[in-house]
Design a protein that fits this description.
218 residues, mainly alpha
Length: 218
């Protein structure tokens, strides 16, 4: 009986499979250890990169929050805000807005050259909102420099973008005002009608209706 049991065990497919697996593991033991080491090392590297990225994003967010607080601080005048913001580093993330804040403050001050210079040092941000705000400020600088044609081109590019982060009714109203100055009344009327038709409840709709009535009443 015992002999039959031993013979049965020898013929057991599962037992044979286990023996083959053990033999394989023994034969390639070193390679398996190396493979495990590579996987562990890769896991450590990935974890380290995730931590670095997390810390970097946290640092960028803190920098942006501090810069925004300075820009909106009612106790500081424009010069003081500029002085403080000039000391901030600017990267390609959300902190790229620091250069945008500086440029907007110079524009507010009426110093168009320094505003343009600040924008030259602006790194393209990962955030479309910041890039769109930069384009809007560039258009404002062009308007202030009496380069209305170039300003319209920028604004049209901005309003034509499906993912634009700037309110389209606001851009359309700005374009209509410029077009009125350039005696392009038909184009201005078209843009004003877009506001009243597509954004009837918007903040800018009331002003658009008034301007539209003035133009169509002429």
């Amino acid at each position: 009986m015992k002999r039959k049991e031993r013979e049965h065990l020898k013929e057991d497919p599962f037992r044979q499979f286990i023996q083959k697996v053990l033999a394989f593991l023994k034969q390639y033991q070193k390679l398996i250890y190396i493979g495990i080491g590579v996987v562990v090392a890769a896991g450590i590297i990935i974890a380290a990169l995730v931590v670095i990225q997390f810390l970097s994003v946290g640092s960028e967010n803190r920098l942006y929050a501090e810069a925004l607080n300075i820009k909106n601080d009612g106790t500081l005048n424009v010069e003081q805000k500029i002085e403080k913001l000039s000391q901030f580093p600017s990267k390609s993330g959300i902190s790229a807005a620091v250069k945008l804040f500086l440029a907007s403050l110079y524009f507010e001050k009426g110093d168009l050259e320094k505003s343009k210079e600040a924008l030259k040092g602006f790194s393209s941000s990962k955030y479309k909102l910041i890039n769109d705000q930069k384009m809007l400020l560039e258009a404002n600088i062009l308007i202030a420099s009496d380069k209305t044609k170039e300003a319209l081109e920028l604004l049209n590019k901005l309003v034509s973008s499906p993912q634009s982060e700037v309110a389209k009714d606001f851009i359309l109203l700005k374009m209509a005002r410029i077009q009125v100055r350039m005696d392009q009344e038909e184009a201005a009327i078209n843009n004003l009608k877009k506001i009243t038709d597509e954004y009837p409840q918007s903040f800018y709709s009331y002003e658009a209706r008034n301007l539209l009535n003035e133009l169509e009443g002429d």
